[in-house]
Amino acid sequence: MALRHYTLDFNLSAPADCPSTVRGLHSIFQEQEMTETVHDTEGHGYLATFIGKNGRLVILRVHSQGLVTVDLQCCEGDNIAQVDNLLNALEKKLKSLLHGNIRGVKRLPALTRGAAVDRYWPTADGRLVEYDIDRVVYDEDSAYQNIKILHSQQFGNILILNGDVNLAESDLPYTQAIMGRGKENYTGKEVLILGGGDGGILAEAVKLNVYIDQMVIDGCRTHMRKACGSVLDNLKGDCYQVRMTVLSIALFLRRDGTFMVYSVSDSTWEFLQLILDLSIKVLRPTGKYFTQGNCANLTEALALYEEQLGRLSCPVDFSKEVVCVPSYMELWVFYTVWKK
């Protein structure tokens, strides 16, 4: 079962005349054979619910601060034309009743709740985005996280890990930004990628040792081929090798090619500082550390990250680039870090 939720808002120059506004709408609800229940707001305007025989629910609120809101909920299988007619009638009547007092009217498309295919995913800075997702391609739980791959008509298949949008097949700008493409020459270089289970960076890299969730690889190998190509078909190629380990362990290469293993705490910033410290230590003098930062709107989080860079055991310099990542629908900051 799914529910459609419509909203209609009237911003007013002055508080509405509550009794006359409510009386003016009664005929519409009576025509719909909807039963009214008035709720006590303890002096904070008017609140009533109207329930129809077909399960439709209307919440009418006349706020004392100059706002009138209408919320309409109906089942997904309800007659859309009838629902639109009801909303049109309410909007037209309210415009007439509130004429001369209206600063703005806002009617949003329906929010679908409880649908089999979830189209709503938050951005990093907490805004809600509705994607044009039409089907679930892959949905599995590994020992570490939930892995979803959803199909978008605009962005192709989208990888979502634990509710966070990670990468879509359209997101080449992300891969190019995190690799410093166009500014760095990878010829003859050794590359260690931490994460990267979608295979996008691997498809661009020269040599790789990467630590990722096997089930992320399994899903992306089949359903994200526009991002990773064929590089995940085999875990070892002429110039790369893929290795897996648990997500709560950080592994880094020594100079001689062996591994150092470090257990990490659950603290995000402690973990981040450990990753940064160990990564910078294994860099050659001319080596560089590339990473995504965060959404450009999250200035406080970005400032905290840059503070961490200043606290490393090895002094570093850094540069940053702001890139629009298509499926994120927001600007994202990428960092390049190197030893002083």
From TrEMBL:
One record GO biological process: spermine biosynthetic process
Any one Gene Ontology molecular-function term assigned to this protein's record: spermine synthase activity
Domain PABS: from-to ranges: 119-339
Xref: InterPro entries: PABS, PABS_CS, SAM-dependent_MTases_sf, Spermidine_synt_N, Spermidine_synt_N_sf, Spermine_synthase_animal, SpmSyn_N
One Pfam family, short name: Spermine_synth
Domain of life of the source: Eukaryota
Keyword Transferase in record: yes
Keywords: Polyamine biosynthesis, Transferase
Keyword ATP-binding: no
SUPFAM superfamilies attached to this UniProt entry: S-adenosyl-L-methionine-dependent methyltransferases (SSF53335)
Active site: D256
PANTHER family per the UniProt record, alphabetical: SPERMINE SYNTHASE (PTHR46315:SF1)
Annotated family: Belongs to the spermidine/spermine synthase family.
Name this protein carries in UniProt: PABS domain-containing protein
Native species: Oncorhynchus tshawytscha
Gene: SMS
